[in-house]
Amino acid sequence: MDITSDIHNRHISRQFNQELEELKTHLMAMGGLVEKQVQDAVAALLDGDSALARHVVDNDRAVNDMQIKIDGECTQVLARRQPAASDLRLVLAVIRAASDLERIGDEASKIARNAIDLIDANNGSRGFVEVRMISEHVRRMVRDALTSFARFDTELALKLVHEDEEVDNEYQAAMRSLITFMMEDARSITPVLNLMWILRSLERIGDHANNLAEYVVYLVKGLDIRHTDPDDLDEQAITRKG
Amino acid sequence: MSVFPSPRPAAGGPIIDFDPAACCLEIEGLSLAYGETPALRDLSLRVPRHRVTAFIGPSGCGKSTLLRALNRLHDLNDEVRLAGSIRLEGQDIHAPEVEVAELRRRVGMVFQAPNPFPMSIYDNVAFGLRLQGGMRKRQMDDIVEWALQSAALWDEVKERLGSSAWTLSGGQQQRLVIARTLAVRPEVLLLDEPASALDPISTLKIEELIRNLKSQLTLVLVTHNMQQAARVSDYTAFLQEGELVEYGATDTLFTNPRLSRTENYITGRMA
After folding, report:
1. Whose CB has fewer CB within 10 Å in chain A, the N or C terminal residue?
2. Chain A residue at shortest CA distance from B227
């Protein structure tokens, strides 16, 4: 059976409604913050803005605090309400999503740290094209993942699950290109390594966005599609309404 | 891990169907009314043998009515009108040749309020055995001990089998009642809110007992406590207004029910 995003405000207990709505709201707020962190980290690199990069690193604390707060709220709901069915799946999905968002935050922080090293070494903008492309891709994935979570939209979630492979391909291509740089000029090895870490972080962000999409499917349909090959998914079952 | 009887969900529908050979009780097209008031409407389900099946649903949905039909307790009520059939191991329980007392030995019942007889612990358990007659004392002693062991009460009462049943706590009395029922070797045990009058620890003991008994019997449990149904039962049937709405594996019903009516009930939402 299908559930819609407003299903959680129809409990006889209004307090319970409120608790569940707050979980969703807090998760979205954390998502928004994390999106901004990724955006700022990449902008810091591309614009050579070390102050912005340092701000991203400092701000990671706020992301971590949000995860702890959300986990605590989820624990309370589980203890107090012993939720069942879609309520239970929502709480589990929120716990998992908060964990993935926190990891995205960590990756953004790593990007910022690597950006600082690159900016300080002042080695030009080689590799920035690849970074820009992949970062735009994964940022959109994160945004779509959060949207699909907010709207309980399994179609959008499914689209994201398929995109992960694209990101992996882009990443591999970018890595090959950077390896070529390193082979051409040994002096470029250190900055190119930094770039590789950045690309790796972006690829990991794509993975985490993919995880978020999987949690949406679990939340809405009760199907656990983690570790299932995207080609093997029963798409009809996932996107069917009702 | 035990092998569950092979269910055949009707094309992915909300009502699980069992292979009749794996079932102890078969209810078909059961309708029941108290006078003019319908209580059960054309209800069909099969109860698998050696499993715990729970009936859940809001007040007045018919779950207790359904339970009581399974050993013809409604015979005691002249106003009840019944249609459809109930079979125990393939035999129609309303067939004229069926002896109701024997049916109620095979299908025992435990009620919400423990109701030990006003006699000793021993005599409570032996009561049914004495009615059957022709049993030597030693044999009776053995069965009484066995029944109290099976009900997880033996260790607590073995030194005082002669004391009055009323000296026991509520939880112990309920286990005594279960021992009394077990002594006559039923095939099915019906439990109508067996723990709702008990404290949390006694409740958990009763639940543990229910789990252990399924190796010997088939158990059918009515409960308004959702978490209890989730903890204890293998299969759960959700009733509403006398109809069977959804019937399936407990694990699935409580994590991902098929129908929104079921979901609304178990999550405490308004329809």
Report:
1. C
2. A82
